[in-house]
Specification:
Mean pLDDT: 86
Helix content: 40-55%
Shape: elongated
Low-confidence stretches: none
Number of strands: 3
Strand order of the largest sheet: 2-1-3
Order of helices and strands: HHEEHE
Number of domains: 2
Radius of gyration: 18 Å
Number of helices: 3
């Protein structure tokens, strides 16, 4: 399993945790994030908008995200 480089803010109730315990908590978050950080969930949460239409087609969304920068008049909108 890969550990992607995410910026995480972890808030803990315990004040007196050592660095090893904090690292254990952070490492336990990686499987949870990996289960939801997939291309299927990305396509479900976004829609592709161009100047003429809005699409939810995963193939078109994936194809558009392969560009380093989106082509002109193409926007990825998060549905949240």
């Amino acid at each position: 399993m890969r550990n992607p480089n995410h910026n995480l803010l972890v808030l803990l109730k315990e004040k007196s945790l050592d660095k090893q315990a904090i690292e254990t908590h952070v490492q336990s978050l990686h499987p949870i994030l990996a289960s939801v950080d997939t291309i299927v969930h990305f396509c479900t949460a976004h829609e592709l908008v161009n100047r003429n239409r809005i699409t939810n087609d995963p193939k078109k969304i994936i194809r558009e995200t392969e560009y380093v920068r989106l082509r002109p008049f193409r926007f990825l909108i998060n549905k949240n």
